[in-house]
Task: inverse folding
């Protein structure tokens, strides 16, 4: 019997080279497939937010949720619902794990959602400090408070801005184009987890208007000129925009879709299109906290369906 012939060194190198070529072709394909799966998951999450909101509205006289109350031992983070886990009452002073308001809008929807993990983003990383101390979910998704409105009544129902009524009176029926108007969005921020608003007037009862200004949103999504100059460039910031230069938008009708950042900005009016009175500073690099009171009621003449400006 003849001895079996072994592979030569050249044959081994050829095989390794072929495997390397196949791997170089497959790895990007598999990576794109994995990313596409995560994108689909995020779309599904936002659609479920929309369906949960619709169920809420059907049970509450066609009104969006906007409550502000204290619910002891009822944090989104189950680790905070243990005796001794929180100093204080958890509502009137930091930390605030039991305060249920727009910073915990997910709690508004929990009776109609399957699990708190529904609000976890498949790509973005949750802010650990806010989760572990306040039971708040940041750097994931945001709800549009200009449509829902919000209450800020806990502790002092008579303060300015205690009642923040939506400019559309907090009802989905009043939204002019529900298949285009944004109710939810992917939102990378460790300071807020909702879309902030302009408030008018400066009073106990105010009206919440959308912060629909292209000049404010561009620094949120685009890379800056440099780390000390937030003038936006034309390059999308992949650190805050998870999927191929775009974000997932949830609409009032319960649908959700991917939208490129450039399209989002084009669908957002400029300062010339959406006239807003003067307001305090701090938003030069984007709307990074809750609200700004404006000196005059916002005005617009064109329709901007993404922002329900009709």
Result:
């Amino acid at each position: 019997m003849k001895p079996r012939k072994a592979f030569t060194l050249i044959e081994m190198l050829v095989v390794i080279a072929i495997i390397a070529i196949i791997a170089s072709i497959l790895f990007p394909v598999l990576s794109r497939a994995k990313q596409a799966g995560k994108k689909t998951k995020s779309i599904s999450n936002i659609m479920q937010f929309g369906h949960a909101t619709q169920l809420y509205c059907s049970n509450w006289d066609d009104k969006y949720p906007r409550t502000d109350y204290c619910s002891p031992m009822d944090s989104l983070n189950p680790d905070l619902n243990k005796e001794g886990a929180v100093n204080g009452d958890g509502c009137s002073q930091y930390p605030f794990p039991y305060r249920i308001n727009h910073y915990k809008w997910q709690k508004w929807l929990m009776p109609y959602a399957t699990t708190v993990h529904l609000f976890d983003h498949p790509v973005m990383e949750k802010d650990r400090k806010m989760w572990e101390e306040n039971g708040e979910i940041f750097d994931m998704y945001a709800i549009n408070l200009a449509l829902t409105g919000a209450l800020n009544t806990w502790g002092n129902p008579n303060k300015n801005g205690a009642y923040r009524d939506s400019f559309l009176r907090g009802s989905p029926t009043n939204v002019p184009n529900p298949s285009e108007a944004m109710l939810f969005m992917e939102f990378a921020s460790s300071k807020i987890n909702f879309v902030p608003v302009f408030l008018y007037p400066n009073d106990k009862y105010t009206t919440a208007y959308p912060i629909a200004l292209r000049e404010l949103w561009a620094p949120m999504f685009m890379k800056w000129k440099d780390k000390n100059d937030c003038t936006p460039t034309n390059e999308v910031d992949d650190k805050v925009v998870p999927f191929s230069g775009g974000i997932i938008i949830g609409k009032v009708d319960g649908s959700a879709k991917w939208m490129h950042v450039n399209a989002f900005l084009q669908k957002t009016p400029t300062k010339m299109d959406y006239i807003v009175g003067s307001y305090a500073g701090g938003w030069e690099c984007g709307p990074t906290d809750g609200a700004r009171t404006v000196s005059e009621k916002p005005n617009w003449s064109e329709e901007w369906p993404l922002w329900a400006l009709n």
